[in-house]
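Hi V.,

You were right to ask for the full record rather than a summary. Here it is.
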Amino acid sequence: MIWRTTLLLAITCTIGCTPPAKEQAAGSKKLRIAVIPKGTTHEFWKSVHHGADRAAKELGVDILWEGPLNENDTDNQIRIVESFLTKRVDGIVLAPNDSQALIDVVRQAKAKQIPTVVFDSGLDAPDDIVSYVATDNQRGGVLAAQALAKAMGEQGEVVMLRYNVGSESTKAREDGFLGELKKYPKITVISESEYSGTTPESSLAKCQALLLTFGDKVDGMYAVAEPNGVGMLGALEEKRLAGKVKFVTFDPSPRLNDALSTGKVHGIVLQDPDTMGYLAVKSLVAHLRGENVEKRISTGEYVATPENMNSPEMKRLLNPPQFAD
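Predicted structure:
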């Protein structure tokens, strides 16, 4: 926590104490920053929006928030970036749906001298971006494995549900989880290749099929994002296995938080989306104002359990502030 506070103070001082060169050159012109999430419907992105808006107000810049409705609509996300290039925004803050598919448009932005900060999920072109602001998702997967192993008494059979092909953040959560579970010789992963898709509905259908196949064997389940966590919970409830099968997921929502309090969920790996949106915008503005910015800024990862969920820090992370339209 100390290093994160120091980093935040350093960025704040850097921005607050340095003359805004680009704005000075343009007279009274305010910087216009495009903020493009993976999607706009999930609780996580509403909290990112809150943090980005908070930074914009603090710095006196304008943010233009726009993203696809669903996180699997990569083509639309590319069109949104292209639209902002046409509008000649000063910079872009982007959570790429696909680590490869967004490379070309980010390079187009760089060629037009419009810098990009990537957040939440990585892009396989680190030299073409200013900074990457995100959770350490690999470590988040490790924490999920540890929490599930503890809940299972370090033995039993596990099902992991993947999220969406091309999503760098969730792949890291999957890899971290599977790698860590290898340390538990009495735990066997019986299914880890299925993808849920990006909605609770598609996840519910996939989990129903998995439980039809493995329901009498499975002792633990892991979902790597909020929408597939909600779908997995619904499938467990439908089969009357919620609470019996140990269940760890990633990212909170009112439904998942309630299930944590009643013992139907045994752990939720938490990010800090408000801080993520805040630091992503602040980092881009710092770059535009001529300051050096770290290439990788981590926003932390945590695990809420039924035992610790009422602590002040866990309450904050389980219920992050959201942007009010």
